[in-house]
């Protein structure tokens, strides 16, 4: 009997379908737990405490971006070249982690005083602000290393191990949030997020050690390669810190704690987009980084990704538009009158997601926009948005977020396309 041959294209489709289904199912569990945890926090914390929690969460994102500054993208780009060699991959990862620890010091020096001021400006006492800042440390320490620890398993497509770890971390966080029933304070909610992540990182280190030698020494040559990319990416990262969180920053200064809590609660609903984001960062972006430098291949994958993002975004915004009352019910009575703001918030989050994925695609290949070009354009968009829109109101701030996110998406998508077009064709 003749042996049956399997079409290579069909085999590849089946392989990707399995990977995406495994990743997607696990992420439904992970994000489901995350969404339930987030809603639990919204419902259990008083409005003023939730406003403080929102400020801390926003600053944590800013601190993480500043501590990275493009290091993660550089590690992914360098790791994509040597991913089959455990010793060389270990050198890349250890070098990246060493750099990130140094950047973390600068991030803390910049972010902590600003956070302390914003907390007190929004009603926290000196003692409460100090306690909240201290409870932020475990989450920040975990954020320094978890994305780097995931690189080796991602490059080897060891998705199951990563997903199991994420599920356990989210279960632990959910269980720890039960303490809010007794002590409904922002500091408790922050600790409930940070401690499980630190435990999860210990497990991630063991998973990553199966593919990379973490006992390697930092490599000066690799460090120079990573820093070369950081110099190009860091200005954009700083801009991202400002523009990506501008809604919260503006309202925290010009608005009040109730408005901050409303924006934070709406942002929590955008967690549904994390499923899409993690599927892309776990599967698509690492695979894109390993593609040959061939214009036709890169362009074909780029176009597919664009269509997928547009379709997903349209679906999610459509659901928010059709069922605002049902969605806002999840947040409780305090947030039930935000139907129009909900659609704007979800739309802005979808555009931010698409922009971030475009950024991830080209930085994973070692490409970076020249800051001399990107920074003036981005700053001009920020100033123009402030002049044109009434950013002190929740509606105006959300429209401003859509405007800034759209500008970022166009810049990132066009730059990625230009770099692909300039790639060589291999026959």
TrEMBL record:
This is Polysaccharide biosynthesis protein C-terminal domain-containing protein. The keyword Cell membrane applies. It is found in: Cell membrane. Keywords: Cell membrane, Membrane, Transmembrane, Transmembrane helix. InterPro entries: Poly_Biosynth_Transport. GO terms for cellular component: plasma membrane. The keyword Translocase does not apply.
């Amino acid at each position: 009997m003749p042996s049956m041959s399997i079409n290579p294209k069909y085999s590849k489709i089946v392989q990707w379908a399995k990977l995406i289904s495994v990743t997607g199912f696990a992420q439904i569990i992970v994000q489901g737990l995350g969404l339930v945890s987030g809603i639990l926090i919204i419902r259990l914390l008083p409005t003023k405490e939730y406003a403080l929690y929102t400020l801390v969460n926003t600053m944590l994102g800013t601190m993480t971006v500043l501590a990275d500054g493009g290091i993660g993208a550089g590690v992914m780009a360098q790791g994509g070249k040597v991913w089959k060699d455990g010793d060389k991959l270990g050198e890349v990862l250890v070098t990246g982690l060493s750099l990130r620890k140094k950047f973390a010091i600068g991030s803390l020096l910049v972010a902590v005083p600003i956070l302390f001021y914003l907390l007190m400006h929004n009603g926290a006492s000196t003692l409460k602000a100090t306690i909240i800042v201290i409870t932020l440390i475990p989450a920040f320490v975990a954020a320094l290393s978890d994305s780097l620890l995931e690189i080796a398993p991602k490059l080897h497509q060891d998705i199951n191990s990563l997903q199991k770890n994420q599920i356990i971390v989210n279960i632990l966080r959910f269980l720890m949030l039960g303490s809010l029933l007794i002590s409904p304070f922002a500091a408790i909610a922050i600790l409930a997020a940070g401690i499980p992540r630190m435990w999860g990182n210990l497990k991630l280190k063991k998973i990553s050690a199966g593919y990379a030698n973490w006992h390697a020494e930092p490599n000066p040559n690799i460090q120079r390669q990573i820093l070369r990319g950081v110099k190009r990416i860091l200005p954009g990262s700083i801009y991202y810190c400002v523009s990506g969180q501008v809604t919260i920053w503006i309202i925290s200064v010009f608005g009040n704690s109730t408005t901050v809590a409303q924006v934070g609660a709406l942002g929590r609903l955008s967690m549904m987009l994390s499923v899409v984001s993690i599927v892309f960062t776990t599967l698509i972006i690492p695979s894109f980084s390993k593609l040959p430098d061939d214009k036709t291949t890169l362009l074909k994958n780029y176009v597919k990704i664009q269509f997928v993002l547009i379709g997903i975004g349209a679906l999610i915004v459509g659901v928010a538009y059709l069922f605002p009352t049902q969605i806002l019910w999840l947040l409780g009575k305090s947030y039930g009158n935000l139907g129009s703001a909900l659609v704007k918030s979800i739309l802005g989050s979808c555009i931010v997601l698409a922009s971030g994925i475009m950024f991830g695609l080209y930085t994973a290949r070692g490409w970076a926009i020249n800051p001399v070009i990107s920074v003036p354009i981005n700053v001009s968009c920020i100033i123009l948005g402030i002049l044109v829109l009434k950013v002190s109101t929740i509606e105006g701030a959300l429209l401003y977020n859509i405007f800034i996110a759209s500008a970022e998406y166009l810049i990132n998508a066009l730059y990625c396309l230009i770099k692909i077009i300039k790639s060589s064709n291999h026959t």
